[in-house]
Amino acid sequence: MPFFVYGTSRPGALNHTRFLSGRTRSEEPAHLTGATLYPGPGCPYAVEGPDGVVTGDLVTARPEAYADLLATLDRLEEYTPGDPRDLYDRVARNVARTADGTLVRAWVHVAAPAVAARLRARARPIAGGEWRIASR
Fold first, then answer.
1. Cβ distance 56 to 62 under 8 Å?
2. Is the pTM of this model over 0.90?
3. Which residue in 23, 43, 89, 135 is a FRET match for 12, CA 20 to 30 A apart?
4. What percent of the chain lies above the pLDDT cut of 70?
């Protein structure tokens, strides 16, 4: 499955250069509906809910790099399956390609439940769901 990235792992961003560059087969603009983007210290969080759209990129790994890239992104997002201290959960969601609206199933790191609750209670969503614009 491809990955949907919406923050520091997007093409042109620091973590893309460090961890994804040269390991992907394709990268294309996409968006995730049913999530709202919130700022966090250093990186954004997609919080699932009925409203909102998050802008990002659909990244398809080179087959030989897939397993390592999945593990790298999990480490980057501090995600360990089943760990209640996680900041993110990795979930499979439908993501729409911006070019034609085609839905593609992809891995997405979303805010873990405790983080999501704190963000909803204390933070302001990023208007328009676009981290690149908000981070300038």
1. no
2. yes
3. 89
4. 97
